[in-house]
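Notebook entry, structure prediction.
Reason for the run: the old model in the group folder had no record of what sequence produced it. Starting over properly, with the input documented here first.
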Amino acid sequence: MVFQRKRVVAALGCALGIGGAVLASGAFAQAVNPDVPSNTRPDYKVDVTGSNIKRVEGEGALPVEIITREEIQRTGARTVNELLRYIPTIDIYDQGEIASNSPSGSGTTTIRMRGLAETNTLVLLNGRRLPVNALYDASGAGGAVDVNMIPISAIERVEILKDGGSAIYGADAVAGVVNFITRKDFQGVEVTGRYGISTHGDGEEKGASLAAGLGNFDKDGYNVLFSFDYLKRDPIYRKDRDISSSADFRRFGGPDARSSFAPQGNFADPNTGAILGGSVQPCPPGLVSGNPPRCRYDFNSSILTAYNGADRYAGMLVGNVKINNDLKAFAQLSYAHAKDDFEAHPAPDYFDYPAGSGLIAGRFLQGGPRITDRTSELIDGTVGVEGTTKWFDWDVAYNHGESKVTNKDRNYYQADLFSAATGSGAIDPTVNTNDPAFVESLKVSPVREGKSKIDAVDARMRGTSTWSLPGGNIGWAFGGSWWKESLVDTPDPLTQAGNVAGSIQQAAVDANRNAYAVFGEVSVPIIKTVELQGALRYDHYSTDSATSPKIGVYWTPLKELAFRASYTESFRMPSLKQLYGAQEQGATDFATPEECIILGFDPSCDVPGFQVSGANPNLKAEKGKTWNVGVVTDLGPFSASLDWWRIDVDDQITQPTQLSALQQGLYSRDPQTGRTLVFVNLQNVAQALNEGVDLDMRLRFPNTVIGNVTIRDSATYYIKQRTREAGSEWTEFNGTYALPRIRNVFNVGTEWRSWEANLYVRTVGGFTDTDTGWQASQPIPTGTHRVSDMDQWDLNAAYTGFKGWRLGGGIINLFDRMPPFSAQNARSNIYEQIGFAPLYSSRGRFYHFEVTYTFGK
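New structure, fully documented this time:
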């Protein structure tokens, strides 16, 4: 099909050196120079994400979206996090960039797709796995690749497989695969400087990058590329944006979320901790609210950030050497470093106090804010050889990756000593006049260190059959891989013991596992217009194994029209922390009639027991099934694709409720004490069902008065986002808090002589402001707050009229729109309490400029 070849030529143009202009916003190249080397002609087969078989056509049975380097430049994105906002397929959940008090998540960016968690999206660098972030939650949340460590200036293109990919890549590809392809065959030197700042005078960004390539692989037999990228970004503080300037959100019709743990010391009930009214120190009238009245602490009015700062640099060295005409060696080494500094308020706590009720809810300010200095490193290297024989191509490679994260905390206290000091009156937590030396003597500086590693060896053979069907030769590939994952997460001993005031108890993990896989794949052109694709992969882990099939069909009844359909099965292995992290017991009571009856007690019982929570070494893999049906068309100036998809996930890992655990028989008697143990640790007890539609349309007008004009609209619309525990009713979360039904990006761009310009309108749909979802038997209450849609207009332009120079710049958020208010985010301290869902930024209007000079090409 003609339009298939156009698409892959446009997508891989820079990587392979194809001549010819590409229209704005990813329009397809219209012609290929027949005099260029054979490996750049449209009949040259290339690797495309989602298959081990090299293909000519970019389109196939599986939906793959390709974002080229030119498209990245046109968006004005300066980081991978910024780029993701222009891809509707990606679910934006920006907690890592706006939260400054998450021990494992602050400063990170992970990728979510299809309404599933970040652990269900596989992130690759040049087709190979990266280690997951070294620090993540005991639940497994955050156990994914931190893409902030990938420098955007080194990216040649991004390929997104919008389908399950376990039949090709193994675990974690339930929602899809995002493959970052770096520059390889560049020659010359390219230097870039960047600057940006918001109209509020904050969030200043400074950046620079260098790319230097030497050698032409075809002529010289080698090519070496070095790239370096640097970014420095100043933070934006909550106090400097109206929506987040105060945690008293009554000005927006929301709650007063200011803390009841005020430094003035609110009197509390010694038995329940309930606020009684009145405080030790006088409270300014503007800080008094609630029933009973209590003194409030406005944590949003200082210190906390609305958008985190960043200090990152990354370097990459890539080399290819021709050993002979049929054999070459390749190597890649990359290193990324990030430094983040986060501040949080002194911790809220209860203190014994000799006056009033004898207990106060307070916050000790004298010791200063809690500070975390976070350092992250990513090291990734690959060496290998690839060759060609008369019958097939082959390659063998070894890959090693490490993620290292160190959190160094300051202004924390040893809990037992601090509690004794406040309880005895040696420290008065309501004043700032305590003996400074004594206060300092109680402080500790916990350090948490984590290292996540992956080592892998893979080998492939691929080729085509010597005999053919009516549609052509059969393409085939098979191979195998072996890898080892390891995780070491070592919190400070005081933190492990729960003896750090102002911090949460954290368990140590030191675990590893080996695995291997074998796979095969075929592409069968039955007739000229029908192609079947199939793949099968077997993955073996010490705790579980999985066989993942894929089958697809691609039908082109007309030159301008194609239909595709596929079915794939995928799986996600439990993370090492989910399997081998700590288990803990905590006291509980069984008092509801349902609980009492299950346990064999009288319905009115009130029986003490213990909950067992945390990791579970018996967890098995989550299983996914994905269906995709789509149509692709190219009618000259107009092209479009429409895909319906559905993902069913079984054996999803979650923490069951106490009642659900009892109903599933997850309880026993402690043989020593006789007390009931209910197991609410992680279990394979949930299901998910997500369904939606992807639409991408492009309309091109070449050679107009204002140049080559392209109009594009792409959208992802969710039909269902459902979950349930075993045996329960489905709960629908589609269109609820932070799960909008639609994301849309509209773009109009033009290229005219040495100018190019692009306007983007990014839309995130509104949602009902609740995180509880709804069921057929329990609909969302009438009158629940509705969060409105959010539109953002971005304008970017560039000039290339000076030889070797590219001058670019633009305005992000042209109309200075602020995010819509969310009462759910404001009221619940499990969220950021910043006043809006982490789907957007409160940065506001942002100006950015970029200058690139290239020479020696």
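Summary: Residues 2-259+297-410+447-490+508-855 form a domain with the Maltoporin; Chain A fold (CATH 2.40.170.20).
The old model has been moved to the deprecated folder.
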